[in-house]
UniProtKB/TrEMBL annotation:
Residues 1-24 form the signal peptide. The lineage of its organism: Bacteria, Bacillati, Actinomycetota, Actinomycetes, Micrococcales. It comes from Agrococcus citreus. This is Sugar ABC transporter substrate-binding protein. Keywords: Signal, Transport. Transmembrane segments: none annotated.
Amino acid sequence: MHRTPRAAMALAAGALLLTGCAFGGGQAPTATETTDPTEEVTLTFQSLAFQDATIAATEEIVDSWNAEHPETQIDLVQGSWDNVHDQLVTQFQGGDAPDIIHNEASDMAGFAHDGYLADLTPFLSEELRGDVSEGVWTTVTANEQIFAAPTLMQSYVAFANTAAFEEAGVEVPTGESLAWEDLRSIAQELTADGSYGLGWGLKSPTAPFMNLALGEDGTFFEVDAEGEATIEVGEGELAIPQTVHAMAYEDQSLDPVTLTQTGGDVLPGFLGGTYGMYIGGSYLAQQIADTAPEGFEWTVLPPLAGSAGAAQGTSPQTLSVSADSEHVDRAAAFIDYYMQAENLAAVGEGDCLIPTTGEARDALATATEGQTGWAEMLASGAVLEAAPFQLAVNYPQWKDQYATPAFQQYLSNSIDIDQLTTQLTDGWESIQ
């Protein structure tokens, strides 16, 4: 079978190809094509787990499976997030990709389009299918074919220094969500004596702004079945950038220096008391727990909400099966096993990420009961869904060449909101 090396071309262009098109010639078997159940086989599973606790949880899952399934042994191979895309391009082109592949949805979509991934639709259990929201399934579906099982998700959350709240006489918010306007008011109350109410590392602002826009009913793109998209930048799309800009330059409650820094750059300031609140990926909870000074008191605030609620976009971690695997059915059975509630909860706890299934979130809530921040982070998992930009074919190019520089200029107060709108819109139209 010949496959067009679209993924390789995307690499050469310096961007991933995201598409919602049908698979391009993959060899995924149908539900009736199963292997001899008595044949002893070994399948390779390339994992990208890197936290010690997550590596241990993954190894335990594999060991448990191997003990229960002598006819289907899993050979665990360690990969790296740093080079997984390049590696997969080479492996798929050479016909030696792992049977089971750990990655993320936004990266695997292009490989699925080119036919490198098996359709898992016939093999995943009904229980699993029903326990993951339709919005999350959308991130791993092309032309009604499932190219991966979604495992873990990240949300953007607000971390709070509870001692700073107490000192300022500000009540720590509780409830199902926290409105952006309330976050802004709290940040003003916490700003005093050289300390800012909020620090937010937005050196790479496009992904957070576009994922959080869903809470303001902002989608940026309308995407058709072939991944062709039209752009519209209106109030919903601009609401979060405008709030950030106002907090930095009108309220002076958000340190503008942090807008040029990474989340990791800003974290020490939060731990050192410079910022009463800190926005970042939910996974940073692990770093806070590991590196906070003795006696540092913190929590995670309720999910951030806009005019349309607390919805956020997400690109979940995934498990896929190579279309060239001779045992797609058995590989899919292992994925189903991996995603059992206790297993998925264990890897989620290790990474401080949110499981995609309701049962795993419940199991993780039980396992982490009383631990700082977990209840709020898990609550944010219920509102994560696909964002249209993830399916727009030319999104990576637009993001790198136009969106990120435009957002950075706006955050540095070099251009106004109308100029930002023009740059985002004209940039997209220029690459169509």
